[in-house]
Every structure is written in structure tokens, then in C-alpha cells.
Amino acid sequence: MRDKVILLVEDNPRDEALTLRALQRSKIVNEVVVARDGVEALDYLFGIGKYAGRDATIIPQLILLDLKLPKVDGLQVLKSLRADERTKRVPVVVFTSSSEQEDMIKVYDQGANSYVRKPVDFEQFADATRRLGIYWLLLNQVAPE
Amino acid sequence: MICGAPLRHIDGFSLALLEDYSSKLDDTGKDFLKQVREGSQEMGRLIDDMLQLAHVTRNEMRREKVDLSELASGILNDLRMTEPVRFVNITVQKGLLAYGDERLLKIVLINLLGNAWKFSSKKTAAEIAFGREWAKENGPYFVHDNGVGFNEAFAGKLYEAFQRLHSASDFEGTGIGLATVRRIINRHGGNIWARGKVGKGATFYFTLPDANGVKK
Fold first, then answer.
1. Interface membership of A117 toward B (CB under 8 Å)
2. Touching check for A120 and chain B: CB below 8 Å?
3. Which of B1, B11, B20 lies closest to A122 in CB terms?
4. pLDDT tens profile A51-70
5. Is the full-model pTM beyond 0.80?
6. Which tens digits make up the pLDDT trace of A79-89?
7. For the stretch B128-143, what's the b/e string if a residue is b when 16 or more beta carbons lie within 10 angstroms of its beta carbon?
8. Which of A10, A19, A98, B21 has the fewest C-beta atoms under 10 angstroms from its C-beta?
9. The domain containing residue A126 runs over which residues?
10. ipTM of the complex model
């Protein structure tokens, strides 16, 4: 379980750095693979494009997904990975700065496991990241394959 | 919110410095970072307030029956929760109905009651009241507090954006709240005015046309 990868899908390098730091501080030791747009995320998951040749039967332990992404947005990434047999049960936590109620419903409809709004107050964001990280990686069992 | 992201980063990296490198910073250095964080958080509130001010004139208005008393009680409960140790004598007249856009009228009450809460904070026996004067037809609603008040000579400046009658060190605020309130009341076809005296509290009055006298 330890060596399983966390896939972080985030295009903003500063958010990436802050998220990585929050993971580190919560003592999460998993390798983190960063995809910087929706296409890269799907390439990684399905072992195509830039990641052609990667063994796509090895799935990430957790996906942290930003909603606003270049090329293919987060909602579409979620849709695509839920439609695939290999990735349909991966826990997905959506990070977003959008506070729209409408977005939240759509995100859950597409099969997100949890939704964290990026608050302007960073402490809350860091707390949420840490809590979620521990929750999913240490407490929650991945659905049986 | 899109403009919130860079501010979240300034705040976030300042916090990271404070947490990860505190052993390498002396007290002055830590204090400077604290100021950076406070500044970015204040900027965040300012942007939120400005966006709200812009939105209240653009979004379409819906008119419906709104229970202002219920809204006011809810807002005051929230305020109480932010400072549970404060004692404030609160009076809310029950069953005050109005016709207007509930979301916008809530912004009005959040601002007026929030101000009453804020400007009575240095009072040991603070009083806040929400009600309506029934003496004349279509009497005004009012929000009263017995706090620091204001000089009526400056009453005209109350509703100008960024105009503040108190220093930021005494009472925090962005100076946009009352500008927003007046826009909302005017959009409903109503009026707003205030009475006050330095050290003797303030009362804000506003009118809203009833269901029959709807003005566009």
C-alpha cells in the first residue's frame, strides 16, 4: 500500500507546491505524480500519449483533482476515468476554488468521493488536505478489485 | 473565486515560512510575515466586497415575500456565535415582512447588523435592535445600536465606497458595506438614511415599497 502513487492533477505550480507541502507535513510518504492538465492526467491513467508504455493496470491510490484545468477540465477527466473499468473505483478528491453549489452537485454526480473547496484561508485548506490525506490513505480501504 | 488564488498563495507561502522556518526567523521577522498574512487576508475581503458591490447591480432581481425578522434573527445568531463571550441585548420585532429579492435584502441586513455589532463592540452594555416604525404609512425599517455612533455632519459620506468614518485600527472594515446597502435599497425603489451622534449610537432607516407600489 505504501508504494502506491498519488496522482495530483493541478496546473498551478504554486498550488502544487502548497499541496505537496501539506501532504509532506501530514507524513504521507507515497510517491506523488503530478499531471499539469487534463490530457496529461488521462495519459498517465491509461498509459497512452506521454505515458505510452506505462502499465495502466497499476492504478493510483488516490487522485487529487483540480477542476479548472487546461485542455481537458477536471469534470471531464472525472467522467472519463469513471467510465473506464480500470479506474472507476479510484478515490477521487476534487480540489477547487469554485464555491458554486451547482459545481458540487455535478462533481458528485460524476463520482467524486469528496470535494474540498480551496478556501482563501490557507490554514483551512492545509487542514483539509492533511485530514483527507490521512483519511483516504490510512483509514479507508480501497474498494476490492 | 479566481482572484482569490494569488492571495491564497501569498498567505499560504507566508504560513509555510512561519511553520517550516520559524527557528531561522527572529521575532521581528515573524511579525513581518504576520503582517503579510493579515494584509493578504484583508485584500481578500476587499475583493469579495467589491465583487459583491458589482454583482448587486447586475444580477436580475426577484421579488418575493421576505420575512426580514427571520433573516435578522439568523444573522444575529451567527454574529453571536462569532463572539460568544460578548453580551449584547438584542431586540428583533417579529413578523416584519417585505417584498424584494431575498438574497439582496439579506446582504443589506448582514451589513447593517454587522455594523451595529461591530460599532457597539466597545460598549459594556451593548444594545442592538431591528424593527419597523409604524407611526406613518410605509414606515421605515430600522437597525439601531448604542455604540460609537458618528458625526451627522459626515452622514453624506457614509455611503461612498472606501469612505470610512473610523480608523482601521479602531474598527476593521473595507468601507464598501454601506455603498452596497444603498445600491440594493435604491434598486428596490426605497430610501436609506441614518441618525447618529458621536458616542451615542447610530440608527439606520430604510424603506421598501410594498407589493402594490413596486417601482422598477
1. no
2. yes
3. B11
4. 999 998 889 988 999 988 88
5. no
6. 999 999 999 98
7. bbbbbeeeeeeebbbb
8. B21
9. 5-139
10. 0.70
